[in-house]
Predict the structure.
Amino acid sequence: MPKKISIFINNKKYSAEIGQSVLDIAKQNNIDITTLCHHPDIKVQGSCRLCLVEIKGKKGLHTSCNTQVEDGMKILTDSKNISRAKQINLELIFSEHCEECGDCIYSQDCTIKEFAKKYDVKITKYEDRKKGYPVHKFGPALEFDTSKCIDCGLCVDVCKKEGVDFLEYKKKGKFYEVCPSSKKDKDCIYCGQCLTHCPVGAFEGVGEFEDVDKYIDVKGKTVVFQFAPSIRSSIGEEFGMPVGTVVTGKLIAAIKALGIEHVFDVCVGADMTTMEEATELIERLEDDKPLPMFTSCCPAWVKYLEFYRPDLIPNLTTVRSPQVIMGGIIKTYWAKQMNIKPKDIIVVGIMPCVAKKYEIERKQNYLNGMKAVDQILTTRELAHLLRKKKIDLASIKPDNAKSPLLKPSGAGVIYGSSGGVMESALRAAYKKMTGKRMPKLNLKEVRGIQGFKKAKIKIAGKTLKVGVVNGIANAKKLLKELEKDPKAYDYVEVMACFGGCIGGGGQPVPINDEIRQKRSAALYNLDTKKVARSADENPIIKKMYKDFFNDDKNRHSVCHTSFRKKKKEVFPKK
Amino acid sequence: MQKNTRLATRQENIIAKLKQADLRGRGGANFPTHSKWQMFADVDADKKYIVANGSEGEPNVLKDGYILKNHPEVLVEGLKIALETFKSSEAFIFLRRDYFKKYKKKLEKLIGDLPITVFREHGGYLSGEETVLCEEIEKNLPARPRTKPPYPGQVGINGLPTLINNIETFYYVAKISKNEYKKTRLYSITGKTFYKGVFELPVAWSIKKILTATKALPEFDYFVQVGGGASGDILLASETTQQVSGSGAIIIYDKEQTDPWVLMRTWIDFFMNENCDKCTPCREGSYRILEMVRDRQFDKKVLDDLFFVLENTSYCALGKSIPLPFKSAIKKLLAHTRN
């Protein structure tokens, strides 16, 4: 048990534990302290020098983030000197941040602008030091505008925590700068955690926000939108709704208000992924094919394997990700129903992810020579587009459209959370292997936002060893276990982003564990309310298998992909 | 048991001797060595590290190089005493790159079977900072300072207690142990004099006395920078009755012929090149000082602001130390100019 002590903040007594920081106690007690480089996901940086306090008996000012509490410590969070130092340090921070407020992920809620107001900061006191600094492009997924970077270090550390370690400090002239690695054996996997952890918007998705309305109105084309499982419990935040609010009906209504007639739910594609993946799992278990089978619906994880561990490519399931399958269904099955030529359809996907911008470009995901999905807008980008068109998601009347391609099973919905793919596939595999519905549908062992989950699941007399990880660092731990014991797992789900897609690089900011938890819980809650809990119970899936996917050629071209060893694609811009 | 008792006695003896000699850290911080050793002895751990710090990164400080060249056996002797004092310990001699190249072989010969590794520094000036040194030995590069506390004496290299003393400190530990310490220290004298060099003279002597004894006392109107060639304080000829602070460097300047702006430029260039750019005031503040020095004009209010955040909010001692030489130079050397 850690020792309990008392400290005093602004003359009020608070209890604390040895080992906690002054900032920890202030945050616990809702005492306002200015922080910029502090992120609950990442170890303390101590770089911005804004969270200043005075401590009785200790000279000068101290940063609360890396000052440990001591018994009887007397702390002031406000004084003339504190305000003065914050103001000066903020002026210096602004001197390295070239503002581009209109095109910034924080345009709605900018922390430094708020601080500037509070501390009477003259943001143009110094000339911009970083004017003309390079913009690094990370494939078709991300951009890093170094002229906005304030050198806080969060992106470097989150990339390290992710297990990729692609961002590094490099000395250029007199300054160290954050830079993509030029090393041959390192590459970006496009997860976008740098973006969601940057406090000042130095990272953005490619096309964010300038391309948001590129396909809204294209003459002679039918533009359709599809939205990923996790969007329904996250986009509300962009419109001031409480974290974890489910807004499926409002989302459909808002997209339709953009003039888009046809809207699809990628969860239906997820149900298709589940069916195919369950089949492949059973085949692998029976036919002595490479095990464990790895999920492949996270493009950042796929990129990781293709670049860093191509030896493991045979373990990836060949089933396409839900959004690619859904795009395929739209451009084949639905196109035929509607009597529209596939090439006249433009599919825009609303994704929680910047790596999906890369996934749609992969030739292996094409469909009869064309892209299955034509454009990706992140959750943030769709919100921006709606705001631009003056559509308020919060107040719009929900559209409860009943189209079958908007009706997933509960299993399709939970794809958005770490463990969801695994649970969905196991529900379907159970049905396939036993002919019965899984008796215990809620696989609590694989749920939750923790990084590494393991379970043993009994199906038809077999015990399946499954692993569910989020964050590549955890995937690497699992791969280490496999080196020691190749039979440690039969089936493994990997999501690059912490908590799964609900914590994706395309999701609203800020992000932390509490937010991840709420977004995730909302999805599991939706699952329990569905009649069809398993993909195989979804009527439209049954119908498509009967009418369309009974043809193996259709099934293969829409539902399956391939992988290839990759060379480094991202280099620092000179 | 008997062995432990003997070890404890040896520990008590050497620490008592260090206390009696009033040896203080010669890296520049002047911290009582016996206190550091006592605190290190009091930490319970299965393994401990000892480091002789030979980073010597500040301009015009030459004393560690002098010991490495002339008395490396005394340094190794000092480390041997520390290794015998602290059970299950292992040592490093942490050297700037040129020292490593020059003295590695010689040191290794003297080290023989002792558990001492000669380590090549990766960075520059900042690598001498204790926590940065730990990061470098752990190969976390580019190394940046860690939050203190915990101090390396509690949590240092690989999470283990680490005793870090300057090379000169270990040199004197050996002397004290053999009862040969005569309360001296090493002074590096450079600048405008024919009598440059490293001199071993009493701690208690004033700057003037040292300059006189070494024949370096100028006949022209001069000032000195004392402690180090970047962070050291500026003292006019009339102020040389004080003792030398910091790492024992005295740099002599011709007052008439020295352009203070050029001098300040060398300091700020040095700080900007050597800092780690981690924290806002040091990274951005030093750059804005450079701009003003380059333009040979200080905006007093801006400069006051920058000094304020450097002194009060820098992450480590490097940033905190930047204002001092500028403040004294402005007061003493620029007093008659319009700034």
The first strand of chain A starts at residue 4 and ends at 9. The CA atoms of residues 87 and 404 of chain A lie 57 Å apart. Residues 4-78 of chain A form a domain with the Ubiquitin-like (UB roll) fold (CATH 3.10.20.740).
